[in-house]
Write a structure and sequence with these properties.
This protein has 234 residues and is α+β, with helices and mostly antiparallel strands. It folds into 2 domains: 79 residues, no CATH class; 101 residues, no CATH class. It is built from 9 helices and 7 strands. The strands form 2 sheets. Strands 1-2-3-4-5 form a 5-stranded antiparallel beta sheet, covered by helices on one side.
Amino acid sequence: MYKIFSLLIVVVFYSISPVYSAGFDCTKAASKIEKMICSDPQLDKLDSDLLSSYKLAKDNLSKQQFEEIKNEQRKWIKFRNQECTTIELCINAYQHRVDILGIYGQWKNFDNKITPLSLYHRFNLRTIFSSYGQRVKYYCETYPFEYFSSEQMKVEDNTLILDNGDDYLTLTIQDDGQIGISNQISQGTYNTSENYVVNIGQEQDIRASETYIDKSPDCESYSQLYGKNQSFEE
């Protein structure tokens, strides 16, 4: 009888103990979004995964790159609080950002080779004059993976093909080492095709040598406007 009674005590104790898998202490959850996160096991885990991915990205990025992400994350917190009107919407928002930070968290482990896949992860669109070079004047994102999800990306031989339904962008590694970039906007007649000399930059990204377009302090988040990807605040 004593053993059975002891077992019941243990079961009851763990059933009422707080769960700490979220990126914060659920016993101190005060806001609506915090309570929503703690109420759903999947969302609770995603919040914890997001914090881990964020810390890993911090360890793998340069100080300048991380500061840019950190600034964008502040904007996303406001967006997240508006977007998470349901658990499903909140899960989607978090899952996008976990995937994004997962890529940043691998940057130090990427080979310094220019391949179609490395172009997807690391080609700096702010260093070209094409339509995407112009587009990044208004948006906060920099790399192809931030504009095109993995489902919208494929590789054929030496060509990276990106298609989100509105934009069709290809990056081809040519025999002379240059990158041929072609971009077509599906909803219009815009079509560009240019060749660029590229190199591995000090920030571990792949850059063309033509230009560099800084991020505007009031840049818009493409991911927030069009539902591609999101970010997270420490």
